[in-house]
Amino acid sequence: MTTYRLLKAQELTEAVRLSDSVFRPQTQPSMGEMFPRLFAPGIVHSYGAFSEDGTLASFMGLAPSTLRIGVNRDSIRAFSIGSVCTAPEHRGAGHAGRLLQQCIAHAARAEAPLLFVSGERSLYTRAGCVPFGRSANVVLRPPGSAEGAPLLLRQSLYEPGAVLPALTLREAGPEELLRLHALHAAENISFDESAAGLGELLGAAAYCGVLGLTQRIILASIEHEPVAYAVIGVPPHLQHDFNDGVTSMPSAQETPSENLPTVIAYGGTALHAADLLSGLPETLGLEEIHVPVPWQDRELLALLQKTDAEVSYGPNAGTLLIIDARQLLEQAQGLWHRPWEEALRVDKQGRLFAASSGRELDRSEWAGLLFDPEYPRPDDLPNWLIPIPLPYLYGLHYI
């Protein structure tokens, strides 16, 4: 008989072997190195299906996180699912579906109302996971070969007549971690992270590893004061040496990749971040670089559009399950200047209703109304109930 249960710390090594055999056979780095939140010793949240002889037949990684949102930095609890795999000889038995229910129940016991999934398989959509939010994909290219083009590009970002600051770029070494963390911690919408935790994620370079890109961390400073940063993934053959003698932080394995240069994370004021990002193609000799920008970073997006960037729109990355609507609304209450109960009502069965009309909201409406600013607002919901902003999910915290 198959047993479905929480893994023990000593069983994580077997989980790494199974995950590597499915996702990274004969490829480095290992899943254990790329996803320390799932496989490092400590308090384990992940679940497994164990066959009668005690071997791990199927695995579902589960990692907790806390989101900080709004100027008050209110916290929303969440979990992320990843590294979902089943040994070939055990496939087709429904193990993943049972493990998913275990993970949902685990998150519910932790009073975490959100579950993020880095996938859109029917396994997840059958359980109620849906696309969510809105983001822009911004494609930045060099300003061209005309004389003064880089200067004109920078001038487009600043007010007319403004003196352009001397922005200097350098690779961020390990000694820059605390400076990077200070910029990260100043963001209104982010995953809550200690300096050590941020260093763990930068060192793991998980999403770069998935894309087969080499991670680089670029720090922008004005008069030696860090003002912005960008974590980027570039194909290994596209290397540019800053010649500054800095030993960069650990990067992903240099394996061939057809994926395009991508910004994994960024931080700093909108103006300084736009100045840094828009200059990356020219500075690094890239034909283009892709920048995912979540909807709430409106100021940054508006600045990048001044550079004639190519912009397309779509949902945030992956899918999301709202486990408990009441807990989500209570944890996000700081976003709204009025009590959420004036707009919405949740009954004992967890169903969601418009408070003014009593109309039940279909579950497919939940993610649109609560996370997407472009979703049509029905007349029976007030305008002050603004969507909950979430970070872009396929970044440093990719699971």
UniProtKB/TrEMBL annotation:
Taxonomic path: Bacteria, Bacillati, Bacillota, Bacilli, Bacillales
A Pfam entry, by short name: Acetyltransf_9
UniProt domain N-acetyltransferase: residue ranges: 2-158
Species per Swiss-Prot/TrEMBL record: Saccharibacillus kuerlensis
Protein name: N-acetyltransferase domain-containing protein
SUPFAM superfamilies named among the record's database cross-references: Acyl-CoA N-acyltransferases (Nat)
